[in-house]
Design brief:
This protein is α/β, with parallel strands linked by helices and 356 residues long. The protein has nine helices and 15 strands.
């Protein structure tokens, strides 16, 4: 049992998104290791462990997201002040908060070096986000900054040179071991290749490019289809809804991985890309881009290409992935328990430098 406790900050506590899922899994894994854990949030989704103390703050009315975030961090600061957390409490944020000792940085930072930002001072929204981001990582009480990939770490170091005054440690998301599932049974008579695309933000995840890839694959090798998870049918343009090789499955909590020959994930920008380790933990090979953070884990069953490579190259590599039997073996590089152990033995001891 550790001699400190950790208070995690997240607006939505539950398995409702990539960041939120990260917080849920990490806090439960830390609890399993015997650490005392509290959570500060606006809303709870699901049934968290009874060992985790939940503190809720007032939920704001619907408004621009940046205003809602400013209101949330004000409510969090008020609660922290009222609770008078003792000197053995580490405050760990996953949001644009204040007064935390540790922050996990889940997305890409605002790129102030782009020309698009030349007139950003004219936007109250952009100015607020920029200041909140700066407060989150450079606040005087912040001891540790945890980007979820080295890709994000490099961006933060480039944009914020003063971050060298902090401990910057990459903290990859994990997976659960032994995720293999039985086939769903709905493809027993299927003779072609079957691929899967996952991502509610289907434009950024590269859906149109993925379609070009499967069309080329079908013309070069064998007939194929692709199931799409994430967007609703109504979210997609009619041309995609009526595409003969596509089946839109909408949102699903569980993906029937065993039904698919490969995941196609040609994202144009992906801080980590949780679908990649999830696919590999289920023995599904992955064709993705070199802009996805999770390829840093060096999976055997993953091929990462440049989007500038021609479609024939993508199709050939997809065929190579499907035809290599070893790519169907499950690969687990990093688990939630390992992430929790890293926090317990490496990250939180660094954060205690600000306590007392």
């Amino acid at each position: 049992m550790s001699d400190f406790k950790v208070v995690h900050i997240v607006r939505r506590y539950g398995l409702v998104g990539g960041m939120e899922g990260y917080v849920w899994e990490l806090t439960h894994a830390l609890t399993d290791l015997g650490l005392e854990v509290e959570v500060i949030c606006e809303q709870i989704y699901g049934s968290p462990s009874t060992k985790i103390q939940i503190n809720t703050v007032k939920t704001g009315t619907s408004s621009p997201r940046w205003k809602a975030m400013l209101r949330f961090r004000a409510e969090v600061n008020k609660l922290i002040s009222e609770k008078h957390f003792d000197q053995t409490s580490i405050i760990h944020s996953h949001e644009r908060s204040l007064n935390h000792n540790v922050t996990t940085f889940h997305g890409a930072p605002l790129d102030v070096k782009n020309n698009w930002w030349r007139f950003s001072h004219l936007s109250a929204r952009i100015a607020a986000w920029k200041q909140m981001e700066k407060d989150e990582i450079l606040g005087p009480q912040v001891q540790v900054v945890l980007p979820v990939s080295n890709r994000i770490k490099d961006q933060l170091v480039s944009l914020y040179p003063k971050i060298h005054n902090k401990h910057v440690v990459t903290a990859y998301p994990g997976v659960h071991p032994l995720q293999l599932r039985e086939p769903s049974g709905d493809d027993d008579q299927y003779s072609g290749s079957r691929f899967v695309f996952i991502g509610k933000e289907w434009k950024r995840k590269g859906l149109r490019f993925a379609i070009d890839v499967i069309e080329e694959y079908s013309s070069q090798f064998k007939f194929c289809t692709m199931d799409i998870y994430g967007p609703r049918v109504s979210d997609l343009p009619r041309s995609l809804r009526q595409h003969p090789k596509l089946v839109c499955k909408g949102w699903s909590k569980d993906i029937p991985w065993s039904n698919y020959d490969a995941l196609i994930h040609p994202a144009t920008s992906e801080p980590f890309g949780m679908v990649v380790p999830e696919a590999r933990s289920n023995g599904v090979p992955v064709l993705t881009t070199d802009l996805v953070g999770s390829i840093e884990l060096n999976y055997q069953g993953v091929i990462a290409l440049d989007t500038s490579d021609n479609i024939k190259t993508w199709a050939i590599n997809l065929a190579n992935l499907v035809n290599e039997k070893e790519n169907k073996n499950a690969e687990i590089k990093w688990t939630w328990r390992q992430l929790a152990l890293k926090h317990l033995h490496e990250i939180y001891p660094l954060a205690t430098q600000s306590l007392g």
